[in-house]
Fold:
Amino acid sequence: MDGTKIESAAGRYTFVWKGSVEKNKAKLENKIQSVLSDIESQIKQDQSELGRDETPKPIKSNELRDRLSLLNEKLKATAKPTQKQLKKLREEHLPRLEKYEKQLATLGERNSYSKTDEDATFMRLKDDHMQNGQLKPAYNTQISTEEQFITHYSIHQTSTDTTTLEDHLDSFEDQYNRQSDVVVADAGYGSEENYEMLESKNIEGYVKYNYFHKEQKRNQRNNPFLLQNLYYHKEQDFYVCPMGQKMEFAGKGIRKSTNGYSSRVSYYRAERCEGCPLRGQCHKAQGNRIIEVNHRLNELKTRARERLTSETGKYHRSKRPIEVEAVFGQMKSNNRFNRLTMRGLEKVDIEFALMCIGHNLRKWSKKLLKTTSSGPNNEPKYNNPLIYDPKWINYCYQPLVAE
Ligand code: SF4
Structure:
């Protein structure tokens, strides 16, 4: 399986960013709070003044007349700005607050969306000739293939592939009522949570992780300062730094992924880096070197590495670029399917499904028409005896020619 981002039909400059919505909402809330407290304190002040008048004590008619005229004056003076503030709150601040609340509800877990296709998320698309990333509204489409036939697809609103694997496999299971035995995917999917998920579903995963290729290189394997090359004593739980000093356990921590998955990490600290002749090559931090280790991820990576470097792993790795990547090449480059024409998740789902069906039919008809050798009188001999009838061949081939 693999994923690609396809540009949405939405306008390119119609973005709504979560960060700016949250910032503007916080500013507005501060403003509203200060206006509200102004009005409330004004009312309190007025009430307390009125309250003083209500205390039972003897009062003369002329005295009352004077007090009333004074209060009226005061109320007139205070009521005008209060009314103005209330009007501003009602007509300006309240609609803006409602707008921000609606935008945040539309955003959900996403960081952005497009005003002209609210389901589209802004993603970095490497579609210019220099392969520079450009932020455009898009959908993250994931496909599974077998012999270059698309066996399953799913549409996602997040830009990273790490978060899409489980949903994709679950929807595959819903559709076929069974799960894949083997999954082959690139380093974009290699995370602790995905490795754990594949093991829990009994799927044989050939999924690379970051630095899989890098760590195979000699200069990486022989660099004694890299974390993965430090000696670890499992029983006594300590590392040994390149200078031969013990790096003792210094505490534990939790790291949360964008999916909310919690990973446990451990910290180890060197004892005395000051004056160490290797310090310049070892680390740039102030004080002693501290390393962060995820032991569970290391275990899972070791198992993944064993699978990936086995003969079967090498076979799957060599096949992946001519399997799923070739399908994306056919769809996006040969058929120029680089931008969707429909808007909204539901319609985009249908459009992409039609593209997948079209791809499979094209692939299937080409496979049927594939010749193995020439027949008698130099007629082509077809793999599939069902289409040996030339009429059927013409019928099958015409739409492709027309296309
Ligand atoms: S700088 Fe610190 S951690 Fe690095 S080799 Fe020297 S003593 Fe060890």
